[in-house]
Design brief:
α4 packs antiparallel against α8. The chain starts with 7 loop residues before the first helix and ends in an 18-residue tail after the last helix. It contains 33 helices and 20 strands. The protein is of the alpha/beta class. 41% of the residues lie in helices and 13% in strands. The strands form 5 sheets. Strands 1-2-3-4-6-5 form a 6-stranded antiparallel β-sheet, covered by helices on one side. The longest helix is centred in the middle third of the chain and has 25 residues. The chain is globular and about 90 Å long.
């Protein structure tokens, strides 16, 4: 279908030929008409300024109401964009929702139709016209094009106001759907209002062009929603500041903080850093406050206990070492010198432990490497997000291009990995402790670099000063070669540098030949976030031949999301996962293996460590305390049941037992909860008083609800995942509060589904075979840890059967008023029940609720469920 926009002929006519009448007549949906005088006409009737106020689908005229002398902006839009589901009347109704936002928006005052002007080519039958206040000011796009137009304080203010606008629209059930820097205006204070010179510099932000306003749930074909539009706006403003070298030099801290915020917003899981809009607003306020902060001030700033929740934003390795805790059993499994694939929910600490294992991090430790247990190998950290920098994502967008560039892709990846290895060796060789521990002798390393250089047709090593480290200098040379390989791929030029898939293995084999100490301490490449959201599956299959090559001189440890990478390699040869690597699932280890007291102790140690490092007096024991009288989940469930659906001012989510019950390995979520508690109760460095049950409960519920709402924004299938979560959570609450109790009188806590099948049947395979659309939703449900997949177990029907088990993630449970520990399960007998949960969750939930209605005496399948063996 052809795109709806102004034709090229009409655009050319408006720019060069247009002679417009003196008046513009607008016919409203009710039939009445309003006339306006068209301004900016010269003696011939030509209007200046149209070219600068023209978009893809419309143009803006400056008009005057002859009755009041008020000036307005008249935007005329292609009517085809409104013929169908939308009409000018619908737009008028939506616009009324913006009246309560003050001056933040410029909503249309009149909406109707305007007939085409005489002489117009390619004209539609009519234009849809929006009459709004004329805003004296300048768009962010216009300001950015002028040196000095954008300043840090203006960028901070615009950012906060746009976040406020998006928040307001979402609360009103709306979205702008055309938010970009040309639709954000900065309006100076009216001269008549200014009392002094400073007033003349004050500006306000106005969101204009509301012609694309839509209900929030309405699907559109646009590539950017309001959230992505916000990210794009921040990036554009950042680039506008970056182009001004004086701003970069004077406000380095501001620039760094702005980049961090953008990185947080571009995370695949948006709720990981900003589960609530007020959290983002808080960081934008801190960004504004940093305008006067110099680079020299930053290192001396006191560490806040709940900042840098993500390892990616802990730039200081010394801080990471201080904050890292090794008190969980699965940590030791990861630390052992063997290939592993580490999976789990976002924010569970995968990046943290990989960075912790890296030699470049351990160099900052005061511990003697000879006595440390962490140096079973030479750890080299490679982040797919940071080091690969999304440079490989574009390749698979064109069919067949991945295979065509296979050798260049492998070459590029190996150069990245080798660069990090050379850099890590260079830093280790500068530290006397690690130089001695790994027996890194300059003559051997020089010989190794020379050997590597011979593999290139043209020497890539560049001149250096005698004082410079050859290893670190060579790492930069490798990076330059990496950039050249990428540019050749990007522009389709013939490759001039190609490396065999075995090159990396040959390099590490030569390294241990020259540095024998590395035979007993092999190189361990820590490949972080090797998941298909970072590396396309087609590209992964190319890289798997490098990643899973069996060499005694090195091996890879991988972190990824569930279903995050494809196991077969580029030639289709299967990789035997049981021989090649061990899978460590953080969710599995936390929810299935970890005991309640272990979880509580670990979280206490984790939180106390941050409080201590920040210099705060409070600790978990004094600030959070225990969960009495609801430390036992049966007590919590019975209390919720006794209060009914209307819980009023009852506060029962508090204490360390509650925190550990909510935890399924997602450390970041727990830190967000504790941070919210401290904010609710105004806890500071000198606070030692216990946070009230009310503040703890409110913080826990607020974060849980925010994370539940954030599922809507998951891509893809956010709407479907949210509907499943909402239906399942509401169903579990109804059964808990109103359903028939168990035989022992306790409330039913049914947060898990189980389905028994023949031992040869794999439920996900069945879904992919018979219902591929359902399979994709199911994978997202588990990949994004909305539900946690437990290990398959032997079915209760007999040795020839097995049971598949999915359980609602604990962090979501407070948002539905549930207890925190699952007891028993919902027994499903047919895969059709799984289909129903995925396709019609409300019907599924209603069916299950009926089975547990109080007074229901039917017993088959549902009366006496217990844990499967």
């Amino acid at each position: 279908m052809a795109s709806i926009q102004l034709s090229d002929g009409l655009r050319a006519w408006l720019k060069e030929v247009a002679i417009l009448p003196e008046t513009l007549e607008l016919r409203k949906p009710g039939g009445s008409t309003v006339q306006f005088q068209i301004l900016e006409r010269d003696v011939d009737g030509k209007v200046s300024g149209i070219a600068s106020r023209m978009g893809k689908k419309g143009f803006v005229l400056r008009v005057l109401d002859p009755d009041t002398n008020a000036e307005y902006a008249a935007k005329l839009c292609v009517s085809a964009d409104y013929d169908g589901q939308r009409s000018e009347k619908d737009e008028a109704v939506l616009a009324t929702n913006l009246r309560g936002a003050g001056d933040l928006f410029a909503p249309p005052l009149h909406i109707g139709r305007v007939q085409p002007f005489a002489g117009m080519p390619d004209t539609p039958e009519s234009f849809v016209c929006f009459i709004s206040d004329w805003i004296e000011g300048e768009t962010i796009e216009s300001l950015a094009q002028r040196i000095g137009g954008l300043t840090p304080d203006l960028v901070a203010e615009v950012s906060m106001q746009v976040v406020r606008a998006i928040h307001y629209l979402k609360n009103k059930g709306l979205k702008h759907d055309d938010l970009h820097w040309g639709n954000v205006m900065v309006r100076p204070m009216a001269k008549e209002l200014a009392l002094n010179e400073d007033d003349l510099r004050k500006v306000s932000v106005v969101i204009i062009d509301l012609g694309s306003l839509k209900p929030f749930a309405q699907q559109t074909a646009k590539s950017k929603d309001d959230h992505l539009a916000l990210v794009d706006l921040l990036c554009q403003m950042h680039n506008g500041l970056w182009a001004q070298r004086s701003v970069v030099a004077s406000h380095a801290v501001f620039i760094k903080k702005m980049r961090t915020i953008i990185q947080c917003l571009t995370d695949d899981d948006q709720a990981r850093f900003y589960p609530r809009s007020e959290d983002l607003h808080r960081d934008l306020m801190l960004l504004r406050d940093s305008i006067s902060q110099s680079e020299a001030d930053a290192p001396g700033r006191r560490f806040r206990p709940f900042e840098a929740i993500s390892a990616e934003h802990l730039a200081d390795d010394k801080v990471l070492l201080r904050l890292f805790r090794t008190g969980l059993p699965w940590f030791q499994d990861v630390l052992e010198p063997k290939p592993i694939v580490l999976t789990g929910p976002r924010g569970c600490g995968k990046s943290m432990i990989f960075r912790y294992m890296a030699v470049t991090t351990q160099i900052n430790s005061e511990e003697d490497p000879h006595t440390s247990k962490q140096h079973a190998g030479f750890g080299v950290y490679i982040s797919c997000a940071t080091h690969l920098q999304n440079h490989l994502l574009w390749i698979a967008r064109e069919e067949g291009r991945t295979q065509k560039l296979a050798t260049s892709i492998s070459t590029y990846f190996q150069l990245v990995v080798l660069r990090e290895l050379v850099r890590a060796l260079g830093l280790a060789a500068r530290d006397e402790r690690f130089k001695k521990f790994f027996d890194l002798r300059p003559s051997q390393l020089d010989a190794w670099i020379g050997w590597i250089s011979h593999h290139f047709d043209v020497s890539i090593e560049t001149p250096r000063t005698s004082a410079a480290s050859r290893l670190l200098h060579f790492a930069d040379d490798l990076d330059r070669a990496r950039v050249q390989v990428h540019l050749k791929m990007l522009y389709g030029h013939p490759a001039t540098l190609l490396l065999a898939d075995a090159f990396l293995g040959d390099v590490t084999s030569k390294l241990i030949e020259l540095c024998p100490r590395l035979k007993s301490h092999p190189v361990i490449f820590l490949l972080d976030d090797y998941t298909d959201t970072r590396i396309n599956p087609e590209v992964q299959q190319i890289l798997n031949r490098v990643v899973f090559e069996r060499r005694s001189s090195h091996f890879f440890k991988i972190s990824c999301e569930r279903f995050g990478f494809k196991i077969p390699d580029a030639q289709g040869a299967p990789i035997d996962r049981d021989r090649e690597f061990t899978v460590v699932d953080v969710g599995h280890q936390t929810m299935e293996v970890l005991q309640a007291h272990q979880a509580k102790n670990f979280l206490k140690e984790l939180i106390d460590c941050r409080l201590e490092y920040a210099g705060w007096k409070g600790r978990c024991e004094t600030l959070i305390g225990d969960s009495t009288p609801y430390a036992h989940d049966n007590k919590l469930a019975d209390f919720i049941r006794s209060t009914g659906s209307k819980q009023g001012n009852h506060y029962y989510y508090f204490g360390m037992t509650t925190l550990s019950g909510m935890w399924s390995g997602d450390i970041a979520a727990i830190l967000q909860v504790v941070n919210a508690m401290c904010m609710q109760a105004s806890v500071g460095p000198d606070t030692e008083k216990k946070i009230s049950a009310q503040h703890q409960h409110q913080a826990i519920v607020a974060i849980s609800k925010a994370l539940t709402r954030a599922v809507l924004d998951y891509h893809p299938f956010g709407t479907q995942l949210h509907a499943i979560l909402q239906a399942f959570g509401s169903m579990a609450h109804t059964i808990l509060v109103e359903g028939t109790p168990q035989k022992d009188g306790n409330a039913r806590r049914l947060y898990r589904i189980e389905i028994s099948t023949d031992s040869t049947v794999v439920v996900m395979d069945e879904l992919e075979k018979h219902r591929p659309d359902h399979a994709r939703i199911a994978k997202e449900l588990l990949r994004r840890s909305v539900f946690h997949p437990f290990s398959d177990s032997r079915g209760k029907e007999g040795p020839g059967s097995k049971t598949t088990r999915w359980e609602m993630r604990p962090i979501f449970r407070p948002s539905f008023g549930l207890s925190l520990v699952r007891e028993n399960y919902i027994d499903l007998k047919k895969t059709d029940d799984i289909y129903e949960l995925l396709s019609d969750p409300k019907a599924f939930a209603q069916k299950i609720v009926r089975r547990y209605e109080n007074g229901n005496q039917s017993k088959p399948l549902f009366a006496d469920e217990g844990d499967t063996p």
